[in-house]
Amino acid sequence: MTAFRPDRGRDRRRVLHPAPSGIPDAGCLYGHRRPHVVVVGAGIAGLSAATGLAERGVDVDIVEREPYIGGRVGGWTQTLPGGSVVGMNRGFHAFFRQYYNLRNLLRRNDPGLHRLIQLDDYPLIDAGGAVDRFRGLPRTPPWNALVFALRSPTFSLRDLAKLDSRAAAPLAAVSVPEIYEQLDHLDADRFLQNINFPAAARHLAFEVFSRSFFAEPTDLSAAELATMFHIYFLGSSEGLVFDVAEDNFDDLWAPLRRYLTDKGVHARTGTVRFHTRVSIASIDTAGSTAAFHLTDDTGAGIDADGVVLATDVAGLRTIVAGSPTIADHAWRERVQRMGTAPAFAVLRLWLDRPVATDRPGFLGTGNLEPLDNVSVVNHYEHSAAVWARRHGGSVVELHAYALPDEAQIGEGSVRLRRQLLGRLHALYPETATARIVDERLLFRRDCPRFAPGDHAQRPRVGTPEPGLALAGDGIRIDLPVALMERAATTGWAAANHLLARWGVAGHPLYTVPTQGRSALLRRVANRERRMHNEFA
Ligand SMILES: Cc1cc2nc3c(=O)[nH]c(=O)nc-3n(C[C@H](O)[C@H](O)[C@H](O)COP(=O)(O)OP(=O)(O)OC[C@H]3O[C@@H](n4cnc5c(N)ncnc54)[C@H](O)[C@@H]3O)c2cc1C
Q1: ∠ Cα 505 508 513 (to 5°)
Q2: Whose C-alpha lies nearest to ligand 1, atom 16?
Q3: What's the CATH number of domain 19-71+249-339+451-507, 1.10.10.60, 3.50.50.60, 3.40.50.300, 3.40.50.150?
Q4: Which protein residues are within 6 Å of ligand 1, measured from CB?
Q5: If you count Cβ atoms within 10 Å of the first and of the last residue's Cβ in the chain, which end, N or C, has fewer?
Q6: DSSP per residue over 269-307, as a string?
Q7: What is the CATH number of domain 76-120+242-248+341-444?
Q8: In this predicted structure, what is the pLDDT of residue 1?
């Protein structure tokens, strides 16, 4: 059996959320057989849920619409002109050290996390050429934020003095979930204006934060921004340096898939089967001998004792709309009200020339629309590095978030591509004369919306339907987690939810502290909240 050592990080103030207690193995709970759960969606959330269930003796079928697993962090291969087979994926992802629950998933079959490598620095540059850097920052709050602010060309000591410290207190004293009561009615842009945050720094540091939720600061909840600031900056001493996958994302998930399907080798007892290219259309709770009957869009069906819906928002809405017998009307309506963020584009270029050697693996940009970031993929991804070496070239990826609908079609997409290339040539002039050997432009719109007011409406992991749980980065969980880590945490929590129903032990979760680290700032923030409530 593989000994699994959980990732606890280095922050001594991280929080352990203990595993719910129960029997260790679901065993023969159903007489002669184990319970059987269908997990719909094989992104991070679905894979976490499946792992959590299988390790406690539940039989799991994972059903995935795409031909690959990993969801938005999935990878596949494609053939370039000339016959080279190269890796392709949905774009650059930063794996932060405070992603404890995601790292614990990856550790299942890669205990040393050798498939992740550290990216030493990721500069942020704005239209005026001002650059913020993360290299060499202290890890411990508040020194990380202070040194970042003092070093930043967009933030002066005078700016610091001008901050409205009372209005800004919630930023430094985030408490989850209370922060949503305080700030979810506001948008991030308005909040930063209210606290006198300097405009240049707003564009650079905070726009990058908010646009990583694929939204403009005016469309992002201030509570989500503050929670992000807490997770990555003031609430954790794991630091702002992150890891990236050292190869295409399929390399990240293949070992986990083996871990889940190889029988008898690992510390799990349930049987796991993957079904790719299968799209679930509906779930029925009536008329079948099993608790649930799931039907795919070809009409084929599968019975289950429990279900985890770990799809993206659109997938969840479609399935729930087709399933009038599950849960209740109010809950189904709540699901239909979930929103998606605007579309984004990922343009990957295979160039016949290298970029300058000192170009960073990842560069964030502010105020350089439509460009949000540039990655030099061959600086960190193994298969891209092999291609670049063999061809004396480079592999570069450009992201553009929060796009208007017209940017995705016809002349709009041609213009977007042209603008992105123009930005690249201005930032990295050596690329202007490079020939594009091949390119892929992807448009997607499958990230959840985190607009003001969304939080209270968001469905939670547990549902009114016994035996049905939700997971995904758009699902509410009142813990300080975001993006990939929210996907992983809700996945483990969905497994725990179903296991608890059967009296089976769950899995522990870890998070950054659930409240701000400074008692003084917490007191100021609490006073502010009380005053706000009195006047509201
Ligand atoms: C370009 C980009 C960059 C990002 N960068 C970062 C980053 O740097 N750091 C970070 O933390 N996060 C980042 N994210 C966010 C991160 O990708 C997501 O938070 C995370 O992958 C969500 O995982 P999930 O399992 O919740 O959803 P998904 O990955 O979307 O998984 C849902 C799965 O359900 C499947 N599905 C949907 N409907 C059905 C159906 N009816 N039947 C069967 N299957 C179905 C889908 O095909 C999909 O595989 C980024 C996202 C994008 C797009």
Answers
A1: 150
A2: 484
A3: 3.50.50.60
A4: 40-46, 63-66, 71-73, 90-91, 93-94, 279-280, 310-312, 315, 319, 344, 346, 399, 446-447, 472-473, 483-484, 487
A5: C
A6: -S-EEEE-S--EEEEE-SSSSSSEEEEETTS-EEEESEE
A7: 3.90.660.10
A8: 38
